[in-house]
């Protein structure tokens, strides 16, 4: 490994020493990653012409390479912004820095890189589908069922909501050695709002959910991906809060955990409003609890007892963080445990139309409770509405007229959250109300 220099080097070293366990994950596989080129062959996933009745599209490589931002994740490090971030942080080259590569590439150790592996492929096939060493041959034979490839050969179950949530949240929220600090944000890194179902939809699909797919795999509803994603994101945040490697920067705690706008919005537009769920007054930075706000709305319907527990635990965490006695590990762990339990409960739950209706109503009600004073919570609520409406539509649970009304209400939510710097809570609360009224 390169010798670390500057504070980032120290950070990297500290991260390597950190022994905080990752959230409920199996130990990392030591199998070899064969590289994108070993998936991209014409007869396999790089097909440009007709498919060969394999049940999959076979042009997955082309979709990824041409349309998917993951294919550009490494080159982004070499672009103008990547260079600027590196310069501001005092690292010689972002494309060589572990702190960037861990999320912007399939950064497995040298001994796990096959002959066709190239770090410059960015977030390649095996970053999501798992090391190909054991499953490549078996899956190409077409004779081994999907469940067995997952169970015995190390193919990652990307179709499973809980597994997908852990995979995507691992980079898009991040914990352990994959972590964007406030310093990295300050150096110019974009904010990373994440919602599993919305991001699943934004990513150009290289798969098709048809009859043969349904025979092979789990087809979970979008709303379930949303719910499970929220719980896993909150659990991940609390894991990082407890991680000594992210305990802070000089005088300050790690600011990335807090609501950005609590410090960054202009003082000429006063936003503060009483929030029962944080219990804090104006003038105090507060934890970014957007995922917890969503989770309470889901739990209120699916597991009200856990929802009440969560409410109390989040309140305690807000309080403890504001006391300035360092990281309140016990309080963070308590929230994490409830989130963990909820992730499992949501993964086992069959979400009905009535559930979705009740959750929309609960999300709208969070506005009356003051929770959308935070831009981050409004942004999450917008993505939540989008995911629920999408599920209602694809499962034919609403008619065309309702779909139209919901769409125009959702458009108002998008408009109200389009620009962080111009965010006005009252406008968003009104737009959320319109979503609620459109789903009788
Ligand atoms: C190894 C880390 C990693 C994993 C795992 C990962 N991503 Fe990403 N993702 C990234 C990075 C880095 C970018 C930014 C790439 C760029 O813009 O250059 C990104 C970008 C995206 C974008 C584009 C966002 C935009 O602003 O347009 C979407 C959508 C996305 N990811 C969805 C997902 C989903 C869904 C999953 C899980 C199935 C996932 N990602 C798993 C690292 C990852
Ligand atoms: C915890 C994972 C993580 C780490 C660590 C990380 N990034 Fe990112 N980065 C992302 C994700 C995810 C996105 C996409 C955000 C979005 O659009 O939702 C991104 C976006 C970017 C972009 C914008 C890409 C585009 O297409 O506009 C640049 C540039 C970038 N990162 C550079 C860096 C650099 C330089 C480092 C190291 C100092 C770094 N990142 C560390 C996850 C990470
Ligand atoms: C950011 C994560 C990510 C990356 C990178 C990625 N995939 Fe996928 N892939 C998924 C997800 C999510 C699904 C949908 C769930 C599923 O079918 O398991 C999927 C599905 C598939 C399917 C299944 C189609 C089916 O009908 O069963 C194939 C084949 C596939 N991907 C191939 C590839 C190839 C080849 C690459 C690289 C060129 C690649 N993927 C890169 C996340 C990813
Ligand atoms: C507790 C207060 C606080 C919180 C919360 C906070 N920041 Fe900051 N931020 C600061 C301070 C102080 C500076 C340094 C002073 C400056 O550059 O204006 C700064 C600087 C920055 C800068 C560089 C500004 C520039 O003009 O160069 C960016 C970008 C930034 N923060 C992004 C974020 C993001 C994104 C979040 C949320 C994830 C966040 N901050 C949360 C206090 C905060």
Helix count, DSSP H or I runs of 4 or more residues: 21
Spatial separation of the terminal alpha carbons: 59 Å
The outline comes out as: globular
* Order of secondary-structure elements: HHHHHHHHHHHHHHHHHHHHH
Average pLDDT, rounded to a whole number, is 89
Q: Helicity range of the residues?
A: 40-55%
The structural class is: mainly alpha
Ligands in the model, by name, code or SMILES, are: heme C
Query: Residue ranges: pLDDT <50 for 5 or more in a row?
Result: 1-25
How would a textbook summarize the main sheet? none
Structure characteristics:
single chain, 440 residues, globular, disordered N terminus, binds heme C
Summarize the structure.
The chain has helices spanning 6-17, 60-67, 73-78, 80-89, 98-104, 125-129, 132-140, 146-153, 161-174, 182-186, 196-202, 211-216, 222-242, 260-264, 290-302, 304-322, 329-347, 353-368, 375-394, 400-417, 425-437. The protein has 440 residues and is mostly helical.
What does this structure look like?
By secondary structure, the protein is mainly alpha-helical. It has two domains: 1-13 and 30-156, no CATH class; 222-437, no CATH class. Helices cover 55% and strands 0% of the residues. It has 21 helices and no strands. The protein has helices at 6-17, 60-67, 73-78, 80-89, 98-104, 125-129, 132-140, 146-153, 161-174, 182-186, 196-202, 211-216, 222-242, 260-264, 290-302, 304-322, 329-347, 353-368, 375-394, 400-417, 425-437. Helix 7 runs antiparallel to helix 8 (146-153), helix 19 (375-394) packs antiparallel against helix 20 (400-417) and helix 19 (375-394) runs parallel beside helix 21. The radius of gyration is 22 Å and the shape is globular. It starts with 5 loop residues before the first helix and ends with a helix. The protein binds heme C (HEC) (4 copies). One heme C (HEC) is lined by residues 69, 76-77, 81-82, 85-86, 89, 94, 97, 99-100, 102-104, 171-172, 174, 178-180, 184, 189-190, 192.
């Amino acid at each position: 490994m390169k010798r670390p220099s500057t504070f980032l080097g120290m950070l990297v070293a500290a991260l390597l020493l950190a022994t905080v366990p990752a959230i409920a994950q199996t130990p990392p596989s030591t199998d070899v990653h064969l590289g994108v080129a070993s998936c991209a062959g014409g007869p396999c996933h790089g097909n440009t012409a007709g498919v060969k009745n394999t049940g999959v599209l076979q042009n997955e490589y082309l979709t990824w390479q041409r349309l998917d931002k993951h294919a550009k994740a490494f080159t982004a490090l070499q672009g103008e912004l990547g260079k600027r971030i590196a310069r501001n942080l005092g690292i010689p080259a972002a494309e060589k820095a572990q702190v960037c590569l861990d999320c912007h590439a399939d950064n497995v150790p040298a001994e796990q890189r096959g002959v066709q592996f190239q770090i410059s492929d960015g977030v390649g096939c095996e970053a999501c589908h798992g090391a190909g060493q054991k499953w490549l041959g078996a899956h190409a034979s077409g004779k081994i069922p999907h469940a067995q490839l997952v169970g015995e050969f190390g193919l990652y179950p990307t179709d499973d909501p809980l597994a997908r949530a852990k995979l995507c949240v691992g980079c898009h929220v991040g914990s352990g050695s994959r972590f964007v600090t406030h310093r990295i944000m300050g150096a110019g890194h974009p904010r990373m709002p994440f919602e599993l179902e919305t991001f699943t939809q934004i990513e150009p699909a290289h798969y098709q959910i048809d009859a043969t797919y349904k025979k092979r795999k789990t087809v979970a509803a979008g709303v379930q991906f949303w719910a499970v994603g929220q719980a896993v994101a909150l659990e991940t945040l609390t894991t990082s809060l407890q991680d000594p490697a992210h305990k802070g920067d000089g005088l300050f705690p790690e600011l990335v955990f807090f609501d950005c706008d609590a410090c960054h919005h202009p003082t000429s537009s006063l936003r503060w409003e009483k929030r029962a769920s944080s219990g804090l007054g104006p003038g105090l930075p507060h934890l970014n609890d957007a995922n917890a706000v969503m989770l309470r709305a889901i739990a209120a319907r699916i597991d009200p007892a856990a929802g009440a527990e969560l409410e109390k635990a989040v309140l305690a965490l807000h309080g403890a963080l504001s006391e300035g006695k360092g990281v309140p590990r016990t309080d963070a762990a308590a929230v994490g445990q409830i989130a963990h339990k909820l992730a499992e409960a949501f993964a086992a739950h069959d979400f009905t139309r009535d559930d979705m209706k009740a959750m929309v109503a609960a999300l709208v009600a969070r506005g009356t409770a003051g929770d959308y004073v935070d831009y981050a919570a409004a942004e999450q609520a917008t993505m939540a509405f989008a995911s629920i409406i999408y599920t209602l539509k694809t499962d034919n649970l609403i008619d065309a007229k309702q779909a139209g009304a919901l769409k125009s209400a959702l458009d108002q939510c998008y408009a109200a959250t389009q620009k962080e710097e111009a965010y006005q809570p009252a406008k968003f609360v009104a737009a959320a109300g319109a979503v609620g009224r459109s789903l009788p």
